[in-house]
């Protein structure tokens, strides 16, 4: 099993050649395909806008190829992955599909469902332009199986400056003690302390993933995935107690809200804090809100100096009906032009080391700086630390706990341990 947490490897200070997706490797032909189908869960907001930016680059380079986006909506791709797996099992793959870097790829690779892209990395120069340790998370048994298009940060604290001022919150909480003290301030001001999205389980699981990291620290958290920290031990128990406490400050009716709806509670002044990945910023900007005015950000409490990361990537399925069109797409995905058209709208930073940061907003510039210096720890809920089997059971365990009133901490710990074991099977 590959390990998913890594330190960023420094790139050369100057890069002479920008990759634009025009070279070809020895096992491919020119793209003469008349159509191309990708499979994603990017169906709205900043996600759809970012994808369109990359589609525009692709269409300019491949004007005779019809672009078909077979998107299936649903937070974190939960719905899409189920549909995708049914297509793969039926030997009806799309030409390319979205998958998170890290352990999520393993199931597809072990199932013989992805082509090796190592030669494309060599011909496009990606082996020199992507951080080498990021490439390791895309590699199984020495072969590289997908092309990363971005880096997202999962552990971000969002809030509305005006609401915070009303409650007497004057700065971002850096510790969990400060976080809980601020939740009390919001409560006393008549504002829900923490925006929660319980529809579909994953957003509450995302919150737990951060809380375990914040409560345990990076080493103990990573130990959960290499066997050195017990899921039923005292460290997890302490984290679950903090998680339970945080949930008590949440909004009523959270089980009916997806994450964009929960985020609106913060931007509209009805809730204080929101723990969500940085795709939230892109969503709000697509809604016409202003960074620094309508909302602002900080590293989530307890994880200052730690960057909990995930990366979206695209693959080449075995049996892709329009293989050459797919290879042309992957070249755009890995290019500077493609990534700089995609990421500023998606709310993520480029996976390349030569991004044009003048195109990125103040949050993304800050994230890029943190990515280069922080301790890097992978996300569980977004496929870095666990495969699809682990993620499915992890989300279900958290959903069961949340819908049951967030009372049975010992039961949740046992269910999380079972999720980890399912991922090893």
Automatic annotation (TrEMBL):
Chief localisation class: other
Descriptive protein name: Probable sugar-binding periplasmic protein
One GO location term (cellular component): cell envelope
Subcellular location: Cell envelope
UniProt superkingdom: Bacteria
Biological role stated in the UniProt entry: Part of a binding-protein-dependent transport system for a sugar.
Signal peptide limits: 1-29
UniProt organism field: Candidatus Nanopelagicus hibericus
Matching InterPro entries: Bact_solute-bd_prot1, SBP
Keywords, in A-Z order: Signal, Transport
Family the entry assigns: Belongs to the bacterial solute-binding protein 1 family.
Transmembrane residue ranges: none
């Amino acid at each position: 099993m590959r390990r998913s947490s890594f330190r960023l490897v420094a790139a050369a200070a100057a890069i002479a050649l920008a990759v634009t997706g025009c070279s070809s490797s020895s096992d491919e032909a020119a793209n003469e395909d008349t159509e191309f189908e990708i499979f994603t869960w990017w169906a709205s907001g900043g996600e759809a806008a970012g994808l369109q930016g990359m589609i525009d680059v692709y269409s300019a380079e491949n004007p005779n190829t019809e672009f078909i986006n077979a998107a299936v909506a649903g937070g974190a791709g939960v719905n899409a992955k189920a549909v995708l797996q049914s297509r793969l099992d039926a030997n009806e793959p799309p030409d390319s599909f979205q998958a998170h870097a890290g352990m999520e790829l393993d199931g597809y690779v072990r199932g013989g469902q992805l082509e090796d892209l190592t030669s494309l990395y060599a011909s496009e120069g990606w082996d020199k332009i992507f951080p080498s340790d990021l490439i390791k998370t895309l590699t199984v048994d020495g072969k590289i199986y997908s092309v990363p298009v971005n880096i997202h940060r999962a552990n971000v604290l969002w809030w509305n400056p005006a609401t915070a001022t009303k409650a007497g919150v004057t700065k971002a909480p850096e510790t969990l003690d400060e976080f809980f003290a601020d939740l009390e301030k919001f409560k006393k001001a008549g504002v829900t302390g923490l925006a929660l999205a319980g529809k579909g389980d994953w957003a509450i699981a995302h919150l737990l993933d951060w809380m375990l990291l914040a409560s345990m620290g990076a080493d103990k958290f990573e130990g959960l995935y290499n066997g050195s920290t017990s899921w039923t031990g005292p460290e997890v128990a302490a984290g679950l107690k903090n998680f339970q406490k945080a949930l008590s400050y949440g909004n009523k009716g959270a089980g009916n809200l997806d994450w964009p709806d929960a985020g609106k509670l913060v931007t509209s002044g009805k809730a204080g804090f929101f723990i969500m990945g940085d795709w939230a910023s892109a969503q709000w900007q697509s809604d016409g809100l202003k960074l620094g005015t309508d909302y602002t950000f900080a590293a989530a409490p307890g994880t200052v100096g730690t960057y909990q990361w995930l990366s979206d990537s695209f693959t080449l399925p075995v049996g892709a009906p329009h293989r050459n069109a797919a290879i042309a797409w992957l070249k755009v995905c890995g290019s500077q032009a493609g990534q700089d058209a995609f990421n500023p709208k998606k709310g993520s930073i480029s996976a390349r080391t030569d991004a044009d940061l003048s195109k990125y907003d103040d949050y993304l510039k800050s994230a890029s700086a943190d990515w280069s210096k922080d301790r890097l720890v992978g996300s569980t809920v977004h496929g870095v630390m666990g495969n699809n089997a682990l993620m499915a059971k992890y989300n279900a365990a958290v959903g069961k706990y949340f819908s049951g009133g967030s009372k049975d901490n010992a039961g949740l710990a046992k269910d999380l341990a079972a999720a980890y074991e399912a991922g090893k099977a």
